[in-house]
């Protein structure tokens, strides 16, 4: 997706060979117009899949997921990474280890909103080691729902997540695929 | 806003005289179409205010804020409640005490994205005791930015937040104002 790559080139900051900072338009400040374009692109790629629900994870997945949900006309669920006062009962949970923070956390989705009748599109801001995506897949499968695919805004293709999801047979659609962050420079897969 | 009140009547769950659960369309599962209507309503109410930026707080404020930002054509910043790997330097912070969780946390906004030139609309999902709103106002004022007003999706008018913000001279626009959750029933202010 060219508009996204352009934005990454202009406003992304390479913090290390592993970490790209996109706080200017996705992870802290959000560009709503770009999110609408991203949502549109996910909708185009998955429109024929009879998706009933989008599942994402708080917080940075919410904006692109809601824009895709608006265009597809379906609800969005955001998995909780942190405890919620009103989300306590009937939870589907999965553990996710964060390499960047070196902590293990638990994500939770209410079984009330996700059932065996659902055909789910997973959306997330980043795909790196794939731990968050796998935890989302785990809770969706616990609900008995099927998975149409995984929509990713920015994929770090040089990390293992994409390959592992491919090997497991999931359809992954990433709108920007980064082959390297070496030498302080963003290189895209063509 | 009638569509919102209708949704609260149909899908809101009164957990106690203090707590309304709206996990079906706002706090866990999100109704994107309703969020678009909510964003439109905020945009209509604040359109003449020359707002340059919307500030909200993760996670449930993001969807309504991004829809309002889309319609107003301005960026959205979501304050971080939790530590972020890529958000570390040049932070404006404020402490917020959560009555419901009985914990104190720190919210953070990057000074890079909020400056004295900004005229800010604050958006949040709930207004109850007003602690989150006041912490957002604090970080915005630390940046030297001005505040156009506060847009709230659901106000619990029987708690102190609304009155206190009124007394401090802030313009508060709440799309649904709840006068009581007594007897397991949602009553709206007319």
Model description:
The structure is a homodimer of 190-residue chains. Chain A has a 6-stranded mixed sheet with strand order 5-4-8-9-10-11, with helices on both faces. In chain A, strands 1-2 form a two-stranded antiparallel ribbon. A two-stranded antiparallel ribbon of chain A has the order 6-7. With 190 residues, chain A is of the alpha/beta class. Chain A has helices at 2-11, 32-46, 62-72, 131-142, 161-167; strands at 13-14, 20-21, 29-30, 53-57, 76-79, 91-98, 103-110, 119-127, 146-156, 172-180, 187-188. The first copy, chain A, contains 5 helices and 11 strands; from the N terminus they run αβββαβαββββαβαββ. Strand 3 of chain A pairs antiparallel with strand 5 (76-79) of chain B, so a sheet runs across the interface.
């Amino acid at each position: 997706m060219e508009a996204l790559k352009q934005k990454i080139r202009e406003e992304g900051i390479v913090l290390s060979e592993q970490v790209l900072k996109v706080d200017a338009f996705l992870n802290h400040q959000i560009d709503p117009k770009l999110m609408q374009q991203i949502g549109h692109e996910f909708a185009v790629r998955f429109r024929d899949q009879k998706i009933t629900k989008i599942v994402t994870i708080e917080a940075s997945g919410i904006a692109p997921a809601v824009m895709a949900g608006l265009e597809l006309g379906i609800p969005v669920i955001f998995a909780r990474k942190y405890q919620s006062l009103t989300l306590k009962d009937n939870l589907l949970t999965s553990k996710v280890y964060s390499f960047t923070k070196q902590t293990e956390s638990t994500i939770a989705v209410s079984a009330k909103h996700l059932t065996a009748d659902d055909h789910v599109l997973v959306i997330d801001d980043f795909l790196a080691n794939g731990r968050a995506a796998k935890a989302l897949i785990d809770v969706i499968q616990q609900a008995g729902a099927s998975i149409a695919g995984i929509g990713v805004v920015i994929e770090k293709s040089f990390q293992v997540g994409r390959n592992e999801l491919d090997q497991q047979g999931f359809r992954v659609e990433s709108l920007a695929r980064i082959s390297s962050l070496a030498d302080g420079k963003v290189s895209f897969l063509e």
